[in-house]
């Protein structure tokens, strides 16, 4: 039986939550440079494959992306390119061999605007879930800063999320979602 979110039937113009983690839950980002290399190659592969990146969060042993595509095969091309080049880089740098990620990436189709907003909040709040009490402003490997207007990466497409909010309301939305999830449990 296939694992949840592993069937790769994509829609044109679809939005997807894409994620993966290190094999055996091992860390896949060991240095600041590792994070920057992954983001550099994500940007390059997204541009090459007509993908829009809306949100991202890179944690030490996994990553989350919220992306959209125009063609049904764009995500497959993006993820193959990104995981291949990053794995080669990582294996050479750290003198290792073999798989870096735990199987094929997972992807889930986003079906509604509410789901889109929930996934963006989940991605941006991920560092706080991993380390309760962590101030999101201090976590550098997330698109959170682009959403609260601290930075602006020109390769990110944040408009699909921010069009639902008045300026600064997205930040409040993230706090509300995090507090609600903590109460649940």
From TrEMBL:
GO terms for biological process: DNA transposition. Gene3D superfamilies: Transposase IS200-like. GO terms for molecular function: DNA binding; transposase activity. Residues 11-126 form the Transposase IS200-like domain. SUPFAM superfamilies: Transposase IS200-like. Coiled coil: none annotated. This is Transposase IS200-like domain-containing protein. It comes from candidate division WWE3 bacterium GW2011_GWB1_41_6.
């Amino acid at each position: 039986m296939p694992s949840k979110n592993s069937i790769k039937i994509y829609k044109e113009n679809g939005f997807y939550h894409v994620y993966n983690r290190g094999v055996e839950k091992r860390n896949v980002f060991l240095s600041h440079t590792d994070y920057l290399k992954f983001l550099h190659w994500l940007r390059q592969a997204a541009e090459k494959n007509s993908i829009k990146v809306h949100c991202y969060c890179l944690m030490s042993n996994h990553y989350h992306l919220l992306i959209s595509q125009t063609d049904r095969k764009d995500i497959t091309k993006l993820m193959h390119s990104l995981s291949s080049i990053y794995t080669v880089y990582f294996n050479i740098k750290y003198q290792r061999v073999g798989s870096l990620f735990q199987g094929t990436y997972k992807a889930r189709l986003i079906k509604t605007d509410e789901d889109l907003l929930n996934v963006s909040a989940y991605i941006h709040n991920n560092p706080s879930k991993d380390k309760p009490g962590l101030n999101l402003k201090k976590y550098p490997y997330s698109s959170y800063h682009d959403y609260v207007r601290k930075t602006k990466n020109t390769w990110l497409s944040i408009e699909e999320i921010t069009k639902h909010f008045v300026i600064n309301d997205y930040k409040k939305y993230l706090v509300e979602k995090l507090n609600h999830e903590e109460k649940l449990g």
